[in-house]
């Protein structure tokens, strides 16, 4: 590039710098920084390019996606330059972007990387920032002891750090979240109030709006301030949002204000602020906020008695949460819809959303357990990917610089051939040294992950023993309860409960002994029949089993099918051997018309001819019917020289080894 062209680009850069210093709007700053990036690329100034990418990351929107993209670009450039201080800064920004996206596994990985790099370079401020983020993530995951431990480590470091105003603000921030999570809302509100007082002298209207909205959220839960105080905080928040031209912050303040008036039963004011939000929604274009507003609208219309409109808004919010995959919010709205449909006497939809609520609640519980088991594996994958990407980007930048140098010096190749060869040798040597260092770092991280994975396996083993002990305790309690009861019918009911606990305990034990999360049906049935026969002393049985030994079920399907098998085997021993006959059982499983068919036959007297499931008081038969529905199937009964039960069922996902 000619000297004239370079000077022209430099003049443009200086002009943009002057405009940036006078600009406060973050939207405008984003456009100005983007314009600078184009100029810097032409100038081939990679250090300046990394600096601007990091600035863009720090002012990006609160959804975290754009922030992550710019921060990753900055990290790639800084890694190529081996700029440790800025590598730490960019890594922290990536961790923050992941936190905004609720990707807590990735957040933990990048935050730990910040702490590791900062401790290695003795950067105390960055160590504190990394530990504060770890504290925040542990708090979000409900890991309060770990969260407080990281917070205490940060406090110790902050006490010995000069100019610690921003650090103290961060610590107050994390404290407020922890107290909020623990339900100590008055303490949380006190920490947020301290943060606002620290920020006021700086005059950052956007931050003041955000923290005022946070304070209003806590006040709505603690009932520790008056209605007038809540209004005053929100009025200030709206003024801050207007000063910063921050539409999203203003809409959020309107939403809190609508909730405040609703809590005070001032529904006209509630409606007014909800209407103000509806005007701003197209400009904001945030599905998650639209979902919150829909729920607020639904609550308003339910309070004023218009259940039909309330249902329409709640359905809108439900569909938004479903699209975004927010099962917890779906579950809460499903319960509201169940109540509203009951009031409308629409019992079909009421039942539908009650079932949805139960299914989502079970799903959230299962996902939490699976997440804990997968946590270390995901962290290891992210760490490997990050190391690989950084190495590739560094090699790409080095290659680009080398090719540019070669083009500029092509006319002087003969004169400077010796210098060019030396430069190439240095570049290759530096690349080799860098790759060696990265390999060593990767090995250290791999050892750390393997150690953490071993600890997780030990924890899983401990959980298994605790669950197994809990099943044994429950069974023993039922047995003690039976000894204290004289009524035979009550004893029989307790015995049935104990038998059902045993069937679930067998499922858990077999699941633990497998490497996968599936259970072999044939092995389970053999163990179940053997355990039940021990409860009927002196009785013998002949069992014919026609079940593929490799057929497996996941736990969601195995629990209901195991309970069905328990009921049928127990009834067979109870009734089929009354005339001192040897019990004969035939159990088979095969596929029929795209469904699995589980057939159970004994040589007993079968059900009475007058038996009617709609009027019977038999818990066992009713339980078989309900469990078959849970398996997305049904059951059939017939008599053929003994009772014959046929269970038709399907499973959403299964593995046959």
Automatic annotation (TrEMBL):
Q: Which reaction does it catalyse?
A: ATP + protein L-histidine = ADP + protein N-phospho-L-histidine
Q: Where are the transmembrane segments?
A: 412-432
Q: Which UniProt keywords apply?
A: ATP-binding, Kinase, Membrane, Nucleotide-binding, Phosphoprotein, Transferase, Transmembrane, Transmembrane helix
Using the UniProt record, name the top-level EC class of this enzyme in a single word.
transferase
Q: Which InterPro entries match?
A: HATPase_C_sf (IPR036890), HATPase_dom (IPR003594), Sig_transdc_His_kin_sub2_dim/P (IPR011495), TPR-like_helical_dom_sf (IPR011990)
Against Pfam families, the record matches this protein to: HATPase_c, HisKA_2
* Histidine kinase/HSP90-like ATPase domain location: 556-653
Protein name stated in the entry:
histidine kinase
Tell me which species this is from. Answer: Roseivirga seohaensis
